[in-house]
UniProtKB/TrEMBL annotation:
InterPro entries: RNA_pol_sigma-70-like, RNA_pol_sigma-70_dom, RNA_pol_sigma70_r2, RNA_pol_sigma70_r4_t2, RNA_pol_sigma_r2, RNA_pol_sigma_r3/r4-like, WH-like_DNA-bd_sf. Transmembrane segments: none annotated. NCBIfam families: sigma70-ECF (TIGR02937). The keyword Transcription regulation applies. Keywords: Sigma factor, Transcription, Transcription regulation. This is RNA polymerase sigma factor. Belongs to the sigma-70 factor family. ECF subfamily. It comes from Euzebyella saccharophila. Residues 109-158 form the RNA polymerase sigma factor 70 region 4 type domain. Residues 14-79 form the RNA polymerase sigma-70 region domain.
């Protein structure tokens, strides 16, 4: 890779690294696993960057690579080792930024989403990131109609999980 291409990659990664952190939070249960997944996604992005053609936004391409990497590693890890429970991870949030109710609701939502399947998690993540169905379908490689149908089913599933 040329220095210019390397510089472009680093700049884009720095500008969009929150995408990777959010994917890591969704697919991991502890800080070490989060860091490992972040590193693996970064490596996969680096390897794939020379093939990035710019036909979509960098962030859309980044979502796709990050989610595919996370799903692949998640499926491999499910076969071998169980990670630490989500409840044991403590988030440091200033009391004046969030009220306890909002924090508890967020925790319950994450717990519910973690019960979903791999693709369902990815779809919910993109939906909560305010991506439209066109972007979701492009990122996940499914049709827009399929994305809408799946999202409606997921909403029902989450309602059942959250309100038994």
């Amino acid at each position: 890779m040329t220095k210019e291409l390397e510089h472009q990659f680093v700049t884009e990664l720095e500008n969009n690294q929150n995408i990777v952190h959010k994917v890591c939070t969704l697919y991991t249960n502890n800080r070490d696993a989060h860091n490992d997944l972040f590193q693996e996604i970064t490596i996969q992005l680096w390897k794939a960057y020379p093939k990035f053609r710019g036909e979509s936004k960098f962030s859309t391409w980044m979502y796709r690579v990050a989610l595919n990497t996370a799903i692949t590693l998640y499926r491999k890890s499910k076969r071998s080792i169980r990670t630490q429970d989500y409840d044991s991870v403590i988030f440091k949030i200033k009391a004046d930024e969030y009220d306890a109710t909002e924090e508890e609701q967020l925790k319950l939502m994450y717990q519910a989403v973690k019960q979903l399947g791999d693709i369902e998690k990815a779809l919910v993540f993109l939906y909560l990131e305010d991506k439209n169905y066109s972007e979701i379908s492009e990122t996940l490689g499914i049709t827009e109609v399929n994305a809408r149908v799946k999202m409606n089913r997921i909403k029902k599933k989450l309602r059942t999980i959250l309100n038994p």
